[in-house]
Amino acid sequence: MDIFYPFEWFSELVTFGWLGLTEGTPLGDSVAFFVYDVPKILVMLAVIVFLVAIVRSFFPASRARQLLAGRKLYVGNVAAAGLGVITPFCSCSAVPMFIGFVEAGVPLGVTFSFLLASPMVNELAIGLLIPVFGWRVTLAYVLSGLGVSIIGGIIIGRLGLERYVEEYVYAVKVGDIAEETLTWPDRLKGARAYVGEIVGKVWPWVIVAIAIGAGMHGYLPQDFLARWAGEGNPFAVLVAVAVGVPLYGNAASAVPIAGVLADKGVQVGTVLAFMMAVTALSVPEMIILRKVIKPRLIAIFVGISATTIVAVGFAFNAFL
Predict the structure, then answer these.
(1) pLDDT band at 31 (very low <50, low <70, confident <90, very high)
(2) Contacting residues for 48 by C-beta, under 8 A, at least 6 apart
């Protein structure tokens, strides 16, 4: 049985039953898309965030630093990218996390693997991707996001760019806070609170993004998108990344729009590249990172990340 059938049934009931709209019309299709996606995405998001919060309770920030400190390249990059999946990160926490990792002796390239993976491949992205794209595309996104994070971090580490970190960062000492051993009731209580915090913050953005996506779904002609990001455009991935990098957004705003792009015939690799660019390389994040790293390193970070994201997009378009 399709686990999403109740949402489909509810959408048809509201749209074509209660509201009396006509199936197959732009307005009817847009409203049905909206009513179907909002509860489905929010429910799946809450479930995924709850499960990841339980896992996160075993990996506080100080333990993450301890696990990464002293790690060599390659091993450290893989570990950092993996920790990024279960560790919350956003632009507002970039500065303390960066300082904490550098002070703990985490190599610069390993730190950037974490900074790339955490906003791209976290519980929010996974929780939103599954109901929109299904497990296959979600798994492809997770694996490619980890690949981009690992490769990007390795390249940055090999270039020896420590001189482009602001000098004061190495002088900061970040102490470890004593952490109590959590019981399972504590973990469950914390997970429920975390679900309320995350869903409470992102639900307006989810609804706005789905509303935009619903309008695109019902009213935007397929050939409009095909002209700039369709299968016949050899530069589709480049266009998607170029559009995505300047945008400010997270998975809550990117996934619903990406879902409509896929529905309109845009190739999977192009859609995934757009999502990665939006979530991993936002301008506000770069502004905050400027407090701890110099402009040249920011430019190198963006260039390497964007290049690897473009490569992933082309690869998935070729093989999926």
Answers:
(1) very high
(2) 123, 126, 127, 130
